Amino acid sequence: MSKNIMIVGVGGQGTLLASKILGKAAMDSGLDVKVSEVHGMSQRGGSVVTYVRFGEEVYSPVICKGDADVILSFELLEAARWLPHLKNGGTIVTSTQQINPMPVITGAAKYPEEIISDMKTMAIDIRPYDAQAIAEEAGNVRASNVALIGLAADVLGFDENVLREAVAACVPAKALEVNMKAFDLGRAKAKA
Questions:
Q1: 100-154 pLDDT, tens per residue?
Q2: Which of 61, 82, 147, 154 has a beta carbon 3.0–4.6 Å from 36's, enabling a disulfide?
Q3: Which residues make Cβ contacts (< 8 Å) with residue 114, sequence separation at least 6?
Q4: CB under 8 Å to 145, separation ≥6 — which residues?
Q5: CB contact at 8 A, 168 and 176
């Protein structure tokens, strides 16, 4: 089993914690894992991408265009931005959250309105969810990253219990209960 997963979003959304969770799950599964974080302007709300590659033997952490099996997207426009990296037949699990980039904030551009419907015309599996609402139901909107992992668990390539254990190992103790609830609510929503 080998898998190339891209985690994309905007600074402050928890993409780096998500990559840590998936890296831990891969290591606990006895797989070789490489993780590469590209921060960009992450502290100013800029684009953030993390590559997570795992399998029997992985030599490079970088995922080239057309090689991602899964894109886990924390923001809708970021899903569209990184779409060229997804292989034909790949899966995007995306939050429907929209965070206006600077050109939209300044009025120089408009936020695209038809992102999901445009993606649905392509040879990919697109799974949009309101991860923020799931996290709010769990008790804290900041748990939307773990809710998204729960939503994507069936395409990530790990046993559900391995993912739960990785969440427990990576999330701070004070936030663990809310994050486990977010993971479980995400799993339930994905299975519904």
A1: 888 888 899 999 889 999 888 888 999 999 999 999 999 999 999 999 999 999 9
A2: 61
A3: none
A4: 13, 14, 15, 17, 18, 74, 131
A5: yes
* Domain map (residue ranges) of the chain: 3-191
Cβ(78)–Cβ(50) below 8 Å: no
Residue 37 near residue 22, CB atoms below 8 Å: no
Residue 99 has what DSSP assignment?
A: -
Q: Which CATH superfamily is domain 3-191 in?
A: Pyruvate-ferredoxin oxidoreductase, PFOR, domain III (3.40.920.10)
Q: Where are the alpha helices (DSSP H) in 87-173?
A: 102-105, 115-119, 131-138, 144-156, 160-170
* DSSP-derived secondary structure letter, 83: G
pTM (global) more than 0.70: yes
Q: CB–CB of 102/81 below 8 Å?
A: no
How many C-beta neighbours within 10 Å does residue 124 have? 17
